[in-house]
Amino acid sequence: MKKQIVTMAVLTALLTPMVHANEAGDWVIRAGATNVDPDSGSSGVYVEALGGDTPLSVSVDDNTQLGLNFAYFFSPNWAFELLAATPFEHDVIINDPSGIAPGIFGVPVDGATLASVKHLPPTLSVLYYFSTAGSFQPYVGLGLNYTTFFEESFKSGPSSLGFNDLELDDSWGYSAQVGLDFYFSESWLINASARYIDIETDATFNIGEIAGSADVGVDPMVYSIMLGYKF
């Protein structure tokens, strides 16, 4: 009988959610993998010397880096959050479904890696937690993003065809996210989140002496899995 009572007590303890009430003044620091997955659509390329809009377009691949996340609770249900990361690096792909490129450059370019670019997308958000106690704490958030692009450069192949002087403008936009903190001890947690970030940038470049441009809608989904600590 005593053995059964002990067994039931252990099972009850294991199955009972731990209480982790958030309080004003709490800080949560998280770190882990963050993947930036840009919109799979492509953006049209404009070249004035070729009559303006062309059948060419560009798209951007995804990239994963170390994500850092800081949250400060100013009430049990509300928190500020800052998303940071090591620089993301993306390849820019040129698309030529019409086959126009051989007539311009002398070689096919459809699907070729045109350039690479790095960016940092710090995002400040306000989070609302639906629950301030228990092991599982889901939340939603809205925020403001600033993305700065740097180290834009064409690959050697496109450079040999005359592509040069690539620049991408910085971007301001909104973000929206859903997330979940799962506490497995009094202070340690696993975090998972998915957010949409509105990132629009104007890309300018030259083909020889000919000016070209593209309005690039990056608009990525950003996925994170992180380990966190609350103090």
From TrEMBL:
Gene Ontology BP terms: transmembrane transport
Keywords of the record: Signal
Protein name in UniProt: Outer membrane protein OmpW
One protein family per Pfam: OmpW
Family annotation (PANTHER family): OUTER MEMBRANE PROTEIN W, PTHR36920
UniProt entry tagged with the keyword Signal: yes
Organism: Thalassotalea mangrovi
Listed SUPFAM superfamilies: OMPA-like
Highest taxon of source: Bacteria
Keyword Zinc-finger: no
Signal peptide: 1-21
GO CC entries: outer membrane
